[in-house]
Amino acid sequence: MHDVAIVGAGVAGLSMARALARVGWDVVVLERSADGDGCSCGGASSLPVALLNPWRGRKGDAHPDDLAGLKAVWRWADELQREGLSGQAHRSGVLRVATSERQARTWRERAGQADSLAWLDRDEVPGYVSAPFGAVRVIDGGWLRAPAWLSALAESTRAHGATLRSGAEVQRIARSGDAWRLALRSGEDALARIVVLAVGADEPPGLDGARGAIPPWPDWVRTRGESVEFQATDSETGVDMPMPVAGAVYVVSDGTRSWVGGGHRPPESHDASVAETLRASAAWVRPDLADASPAAVWCGVRAKREDARPEVRELTEGVWIFGAFAGRGFLCAADQAERLTRRLS
């Protein structure tokens, strides 16, 4: 019997597994996908890049949990590097381009109050960015390559003794004495004292308690996000590791290609022109993308609460919800996983 069974191996599940395994818990991660190290295909964790920017919204506010999350990411990045693993996390800073004089005044004032922000007038903004009203630089922000980060988390988790099982779809969870029995589609069972459900926007497995009804699963809002990869039209104009740009869409570049992401549409929606829509939006702040050609398109569904804060709580005795990261899983999951590990301990 395991100490903890984690259902789902996106960034939430793998972060939770690493946090627990590092302090000696016997952990098994069960992921229904049979691909690679367990990234939940179709979920928010399947997108190619993640922006690390806690200063969000039109007013540029930063929630304390998001600021703590960013610190945890950089700490984990250093730890993974010492373990010989590369999560491809880049401390590049992040630019937030103002879209009006009014917004510029608000952000300039905010930058004067926060050590981690710096206001840039129009002539101070890097040349590859169009910022007629100026921009604020998130000094400690950055970005990461999501597949590399997930792979590093998986390898680190295994190195600390955890078991990762792909192609292990959990159909039902039922109380069995002092433990929980997880019935897999393959006909096998897994037994654990504690279950952590990190299923993202997917429906959770069926859940049976020893007595009485299990509280209902939260009614989260689900939205669809997209990301498009563009090849540089002229490699000589590429800027080596420029700062990503955050706004209505985000733009991340590595010098030879750029990823543009965004979107808050219903999960079932499909727009064949998404690449053109995102490219046109990105070209407002990155003019070099005006003639870029799309090379690949990804989509992922994310879940969030009405207040957009993560949901980390005990659903019923021994079964925990760990989700609703609202597209901020790569920013917040490490910190939230460490917090839950301390609570369970």
Structural notes for this entry:
- The structure is a single chain.
- By secondary structure, the protein is an alpha/beta fold.
- It has two domains: 2-47 and 148-220 and 306-344, FAD/NAD(P)-binding domain (3-Layer(bba) Sandwich), CATH 3.50.50.60; 92-142 and 222-304, D-Amino Acid Oxidase, Chain A, domain 2 (2-Layer Sandwich).
- Helix content is 24%, strand content 33%.
- It has six helices and 22 strands.
- Strands 1, 2, 11, 12, 13, 14, 15, 21 and 22 form a nine-stranded mixed β-sheet that branches.
- A hairpin with a 2-residue loop joins strand 12 and strand 13.
- It is elongated, with a radius of gyration of 21 Å.
- 48% of the residues are buried.
Explain briefly what this protein structure is:
With 345 residues, the chain is of the alpha/beta class. 24% of the residues lie in helices and 33% in strands.
Oligomeric state, counting identical vs distinct chains: single chain
Beta-strand segment tally:
22
Structural class: alpha/beta
Helix fraction, binned, reads 10-25%
Named CATH topology of the largest domain: FAD/NAD(P)-binding domain
H/E element order? EHEEEEHEEHEEEHEEEEEEEEEHEEEH
Proper CATH architecture of the largest domain: 3-Layer(bba) Sandwich
Q: Helical segment tally?
A: 6
Domain tally: 2
How would you summarize the topology of this molecule?
Blueprint: E1 2-7, H1 11-22, E2 27-31, E3 49-52, E4 55-56, E5 61-62, H2 64-82, E6 89-90, E7 94-97, H3 101-111, E8 117-120, E9 135-138, E10 142-145, H4 146-159, E11 163-166, E12 170-176, E13 179-184, E14 189-197, E15 206-208, E16 221-231, E17 245-246, E18 250-253, E19 257-265, H5 274-283, E20 293-304, E21 311-316, E22 319-323, H6 329-344
Parallel strand pairs: 1-2, 1-14, 2-11, 7-17, 12-15, 14-22
Antiparallel strand pairs: 3-10, 4-5, 6-10, 7-9, 8-9, 12-13, 13-14, 16-19, 16-20, 18-19, 21-22
Helix pairs in contact: 1-4, 1-6, 2-6
